[in-house]
């Protein structure tokens, strides 16, 4: 197990009626920018609860953050925040809104003479960011309690991430009741997203991080158990609560401690989203199975462990590893997330060429836990999707 340091400063308020805790978290008199997406928080009741909890604050609203938050949109929020001299950000919605909130919190505090796009890709050192709170209504990314954000720039078809401890949310409210009205597509996407966040930190090679292995396996088994129930019976409170907590814990920071990590599936997936507008989870679902097959020699020991512990498969390592890939792909399909590019109207050959070009342009030429997946290797993975 590799050396590690762990620090997660986000306070989590989990359960029903926890939005009221905003009154304790945000100082009275604060100038708050409330950011959200398409308006689902008004339909599910979260908006009214947020406004009530922030009644002692001055609240300015910014709506319309996209499912893959766009730089162009976020900069409008930054301009508004600067004009209103905002001193707190509250992001209410799913991971994309919270990712957008992180960028807004950093960009408002940035020297106006600097290009905010430099934040993305960690091309500039952040000195400060506005305090940020998150109200989660769509479980998937774990963005509500981590330091990562992904932003898309529509004009250049770039989808890139940045990480900085200054954008950890100060607090996060996780109320599973708000996920009861989610459409099936978002439930399936959320489960698949959380599942692959976990495998990116787990399906590499055995590193002696035994506790982290069991944490990963527990999250995966939980998603396999409750994901189909949440999809078929959205009124099932236990299933919804466990999906929300599993998605949070997948990227809370504990699973990957001391572990080699992969993230090539995400690197490829980000390019597919930028190129074709596919949902984030859809790109992961089409990429992971062929990636696992392409890297089977390196991942066989961990895939066999995964197959035995998570899927209860039997046989020698080679057989169990291959069966585990099939079981994983079947699970994504059961969650309603197709695992072939042609199901999304995308030609695999065209995608393979374009993804390789984008990865090369972004300098992503040494992907995977061993740093040996080239853009050409990734093109072959996409072509097999």
Q: So what's the oligomer here? A: single chain
Order of strands, main sheet, comes to 1-8-5-4-2-3
What level of helicity do the residues show?
A: 40-55%
Largest sheet: 6 strands, parallel
Structural class: alpha/beta
Integer tally of domains = 2
Average pLDDT metric: 96
Determine the strand fraction and express it as a percent band.
5-15%
Instruction: Provide the CATH top-level class of the largest domain.
Output: Mainly Alpha
The shape, in one word, is globular
Q: Spell out the helices and strands N to C.
A: EHEHHEHEHEEEEHHHHHHHHH
Distance between the termini: 33 Å
- Rg result: 20 Å
Please state the second-level CATH architecture of the largest domain: Up-down Bundle
- The CATH topology name of the largest domain reads Dehydroquinate synthase-like, alpha domain
H/I helix tally: 14
CATH homology superfamily name of the largest domain: Dehydroquinate synthase-like - alpha domain
Q: How many β-strand stretches?
A: 8
GO cellular component, one term: cytosol
GO molecular function: alcohol dehydrogenase (NADP+) activity; butanol dehydrogenase (NAD+) activity; metal ion binding; methylglyoxal reductase (NADPH) (acetol producing) activity
Pfam families: ADH_Fe_C, Fe-ADH
Keywords: Oxidoreductase
């Amino acid at each position: 197990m590799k050396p590690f340091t762990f620090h997660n400063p986000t306070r989590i308020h989990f359960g029903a009626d926890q939005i009221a805790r905003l009154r304790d978290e945000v100082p009275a008199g604060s100038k708050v920018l409330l950011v959200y997406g398409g308006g689902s928080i008004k339909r599910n009741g979260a908006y009214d609860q947020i406004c009530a909890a922030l009644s002692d604050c001055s609240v300015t609203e910014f709506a319309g953050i996209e499912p893959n938050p766009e730089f162009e949109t976020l900069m409008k929020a930054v301009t508004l925040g600067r004009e209103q001299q905002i001193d707190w950000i509250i992001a209410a919605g799913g991971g994309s809104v919270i990712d957008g909130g992180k960028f807004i919190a950093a960009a408002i505090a940035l020297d106006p003479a600097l290009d905010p796009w430099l934040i993305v890709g960690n091309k500039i050192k952040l000195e400060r960011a506005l305090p940020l709170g998150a109200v989660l209504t769509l479980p998937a990314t774990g963005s509500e309690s981590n330091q990562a954000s992904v932003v898309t720039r529509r004009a250049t078809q770039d989808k890139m991430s940045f990480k900085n401890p200054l954008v950890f949310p100060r607090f996060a409210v996780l109320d599973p009741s708000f996920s009861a009205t989610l459409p099936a597509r978002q439930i399936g996407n959320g489960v698949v997203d959380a599942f692959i966040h976990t495998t990116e930190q787990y399906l590499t090679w055995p590193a002696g991080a035994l506790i982290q292995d069991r944490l990963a396996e527990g999250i995966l088994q939980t998603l396999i158990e409750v994901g189909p129930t949440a999809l078929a019976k959205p009124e099932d409170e236990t299933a919804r609560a466990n999906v929300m907590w599993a998605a949070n814990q997948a990227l809370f920071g504990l699973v990957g401690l001391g572990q080699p990590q992969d993230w090539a599936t995400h690197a490829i997936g980000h390019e597919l989203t930028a190129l074709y507008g596919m949902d984030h989870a859809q790109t992961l679902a089409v990429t992971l199975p062929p990636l696992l097959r392409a890297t089977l020699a390196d991942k066989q020991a961990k895939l066999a462990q995964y197959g035995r512990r998570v899927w209860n498969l039997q046989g020698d390592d080679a057989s169990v590893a291959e069966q585990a890939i099939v079981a994983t792909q079947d699970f994504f399909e059961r969650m309603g997330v197709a695992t072939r590019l042609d199901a999304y109207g995308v030609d695999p050959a065209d995608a393979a060429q374009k993804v390789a070009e984008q990865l090369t342009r972004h300098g992503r030429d040494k992907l995977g836990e061993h740093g040996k997946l080239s853009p050409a290797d990734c093109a072959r993975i996409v072509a097999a999707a």
